[in-house]
Every structure is written in C-alpha cells, then in structure tokens.
Amino acid sequence: MSASGNARTHAALVLNPVKVDARRLRSTLTALSKKHGWAPPRFYETSIDDPGRIITRTALDEGAAAVLAAGGDGTVRSVSEAMAGTGVPFAIVPGGTGNLFARNLGLPLLDPEKVMEAVFTGFTHPVDIGWASLTRENGTETEHGFVVLAGMGLDADMIANTRPDLKKTVGWIAYLDGAARSLPGAKPFRVVYQLDDGRLHSTKVHSMLFANCGALPAGIALMPDASLDDGTMDIAVIQPTGPLGWLGIWRKVWWDNSVLRRSRAGRRVLERRGRNSSIRYLRGRTADTAMVSPTSIELDGDELGTAVRMSCRIEQGGLSIVLPKGHDVSNF
To answer: What mean pLDDT do residues 305-310 have?
Structure first.
C-alpha cells in the first residue's frame, strides 16, 4: 500500500526539539507537502510531560494522513504507542543517539529528507510492535510499547549509568561507558518465566531481553534471528559465570552472531562448536516473567523504574511503516 494523499490531506510531524533541527525539518516537510499537492503540514513538539504519545493522538484526531516521528529512540517508542493499530502511515526520521529502530529498518540515518519524501512517493510495510505490562512493587500495573527491545537487570542498569553528556559527544559509544560502570556491581537475580503456554522455568540471570528486532550499531547482531514482521519475540537469557562468561557473551554477540553467521563456512564452525551457556536464545509470542525483588526495567533505552513482574507480547503488523520507493524489506 502506497503512502498517498491529496490537497485535502496533511502530514503531521511529531518532533523532539532537543534531538533534531526542528526548523530544518519543518521547512523540508512544508516544501514537500506543497510539491506533492498536500495541505500544509502540522507540527507537534514533545515535552518532558509528554514525550510523544498524547500529541500523536491529537495529531490523529485532527486528521493526519501520515505521521512522522523525528527524534531519538524514546520519541519513536512513545509515538509508536499511539500509532499502533491505526493503519495510518508512520515515518521514522532518525535523530537520536542510537537510532536503533531506524537501523533495523535499514533507513538512511544521515538523509532525513529521503525518509520524509517517502511519505509522498514511497510505500508502507506492516511491522510488529511489542508491549510490556509492568507490575510495580505496590501492585499497580502499566503497559508500554517498545519497537526494539525490553530489558531487565544489567541491561537496564547500563542504560541508567550512561552519562547524558557523553551521549551528546560520542553517540552510541557512550553505552560502553555505561556498561563498564554497571558490570562491577552486577549480581544475578532469580526469575520465574513462561513462554506462551509452556511450562514454568526458574533460573538466575544477570539480564533478560525481549526483542522485536536485534541489530545494534557497528553491525552487531544482538538477536541474530529476530524479524520485524514475523509476529514473534526473540528472548535472550543472559547468565554468565565469572569473567570468562562475560567474554563468552561478547564473543557470541560480536564474533559469532555478527561475523561467523554471515558466511556458510562460519555457520559450519558454529555448528561444530556447540552451545554457549552464558547466553541462551528463546522465542515466543508472549513472555511472562516474575522477579523475586524489584528489578530495573528499560524499554528502547528509556528507564522505566523497577518492577516485580513484566509480561511482554508482540502485536503483529501493528505499525504501518513508511519506506522509500524500492526499499528492500527481505531482511526484516
């Protein structure tokens, strides 16, 4: 289905003014709308109180024929919550530190105009969105969307310990500093989990990840089998034993997943080597996890505090993502 409109329709740009060049994007979208015979676009800026969900609903209520989200992964996540299930074309304009969703979609990170042009000349493709229901220690429950991954334990601690000033200067590499700050105090914790209608499992982990997609910057494949449109969630159970266990995880994620798996000879090496017990990969449409004590949570790089239970599910085809004409979706 093509993303199209006419003189009575307009596009809506939801932008994070801290992350992107708001003036440039406003000017570009206004010019493109005029060029393609659309009505003037409308603009909505995120704030501390509303990172995107409420104003996106306002944009939809005001009749937006397409919605563009410009900002970091947090902005995209928040806007996605409102866009899910609407069928309205949704364009991602990269502008943050990691741009993880845009990377997994294969979008041009340094050419926002190309993505914006696709609203008028491209096509839409259905991709999945994840939902995480969190139960707090006081019993309250909230549900939040995620388009990349939800994480608990060390993964969330790493996000919390990443310095904002470093993110501004060196980009995604700042997360390595966050990891270095988190590892010395990392301790395993017990979880009980169930995938789909399977049996209960009890184990100790340092972290669990629930992913909609799995590519990280620098070509690193965190979840090598994850797909954006298969209706299935990919789960990583991280349980290293000592320093060698952490080295095993790094080898698995960087060398095995990101290098060896890309060639036939490399895959043969992996088949002979056998399983790495420090990180296990699972799959399912739903995952229900209970923790013995409050555990830190993150969704797409956003800190979500602590929870004692997290239930994740995948909504297949929940988002209608705008892509440039001719864009290859075979790797989704």
So the answer is: 96
